[in-house]
User: Which sequence fits this backbone?
């Protein structure tokens, strides 16, 4: 009895974890540049003294869906989207370089160029600083040009260039900060072949309908696991009574 009870118990627990991952995908279905996470189940033997005669269910995230989301025109000069393959280099929460497809940029009061989540966008020499300007133009290669505040329209100054990279997708992984990082911990070089379009944003690649269907399937799976646990407990009680009668 303990085998079936243990499998059902661990299965119910891991189903809840998978449900949390799926709920996170669904919650970010409208988040700019978000990449959905995969989840999968597999059985694992319980290792310890003696032979591994017990197994348990395990949910894991084998990776993320790195396919492109749809691109929507916004008309905002600070909105940029990558055309085709490539990533923006940003300053991760740990201070190290990370990568994202979110191009919803903004300028802080101090002039720092950030994404919508508040992380600095990298240029040629680190975080980009934008002086007061009447107009900002971002070229296809990431070059940022401005008309300084108070100057005439013919005065165009180049400030910096957004660092755009094109890594091997097999070398990328999403960490707990929500950004992509290189698996080997290396810092990527800028790639001149990556191009962007100004006034547009890349949407999340989450399919909301599929996520809702999966949520229902996981809920049914959890219900099934709890029924197995109850049946195992009932059978254990009946067996105990039979042993008492004997």
Assistant:
């Amino acid at each position: 009895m303990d085998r079936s009870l243990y499998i059902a118990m661990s299965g119910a627990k891991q189903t809840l974890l998978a449900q949390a991952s799926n709920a996170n995908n669904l919650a970010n279905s409208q988040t700019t540049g978000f990449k959905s996470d995969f989840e999968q189940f597999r059985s694992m033997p319980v290792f310890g003294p003696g032979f591994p005669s017990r197994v348990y269910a395990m949910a894991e995230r084998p990776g993320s869906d790195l396919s492109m989301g749809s691109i929507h025109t916004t008309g905002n000069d600070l909105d940029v989207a990558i055309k085709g393959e490539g990533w923006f280099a940003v300053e991760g929460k740990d201070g190290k370089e990370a990568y994202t497809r979110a191009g919803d940029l903004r300028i802080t009061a101090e002039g720092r160029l950030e994404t919508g989540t508040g992380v600095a966008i990298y240029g040629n020499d680190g975080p980009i600083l934008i002086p007061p300007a009447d107009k900002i133009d971002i070229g296809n290669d990431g070059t940022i040009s401005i008309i300084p505040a108070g100057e005439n329209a013919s005065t165009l100054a180049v400030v910096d260039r957004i660092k755009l990279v094109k890594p091997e997708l097999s070398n990328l992984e999403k960490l707990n900060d929500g950004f992509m990082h290189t698996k080997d911990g290396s810092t990527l070089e800028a790639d001149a072949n990556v191009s962007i379009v100004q006034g547009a944003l890349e949407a999340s690649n989450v399919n909301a309908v599929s996520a809702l269907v999966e949520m229902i399937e996981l809920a049914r799976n959890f219900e099934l696991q709890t029924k197995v646990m109850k049946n195992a407990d009932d059978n254990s009680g009946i067996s105990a009574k039979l042993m008492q009668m004997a």
The chain has a mean pLDDT of 87. Helices lie at 2-27, 208-245. Residues 125 and 141 are 16 Å apart (CA to CA).
